[in-house]
């Protein structure tokens, strides 16, 4: 996310040197980048919160069931929860990686757009 924020700062600096419609266009690009960063951060926080809630609920259920049952049932439940949590952890890791890759891709696309704008103003 830091790369996209740096890109927004560079665009702000560029916008200070530009006038008219070009400045408006750069301002719109900056706003879209900042909104995307905000949305991705909110999405990531929501996923982390839900993951924690699911983990807590699963652990509470396992603890309750384990208190009522013995031996093999307890071991089986713990094994299933551990497997589910491991799967959830893997999914969360893949999701986080996907978000990072998407943010990098957007930042790269924005960077290309800025480079095109820069070339346009140089000529």
From TrEMBL:
PANTHER family: GPI-ANCHORED ADHESIN-LIKE PROTEIN
Name listed for the protein in its UniProt record: Uncharacterized protein
Naturally occurring in which organism (per UniProt): Ilex paraguariensis
């Amino acid at each position: 996310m830091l790369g996209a924020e740096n890109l927004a700062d560079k665009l702000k600096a560029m916008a200070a040197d530009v006038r008219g419609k070009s400045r408006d266009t750069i301002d719109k690009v900056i706003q879209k980048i900042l909104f995307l960063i905000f949305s991705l951060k909110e999405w990531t926080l929501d996923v982390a919160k839900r993951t924690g809630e699911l983990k807590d609920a699963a652990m509470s259920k396992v603890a309750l069931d384990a208190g009522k049952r013995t031996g093999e049932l307890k071991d089986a439940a713990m094994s299933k929860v551990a497997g589910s949590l491991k799967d959830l952890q893997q999914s969360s890791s893949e999701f986080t990686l996907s978000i990072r890759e998407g943010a990098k891709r957007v930042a790269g696309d924005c960077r290309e757009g800025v480079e095109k704008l820069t070339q346009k103003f140089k000529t």
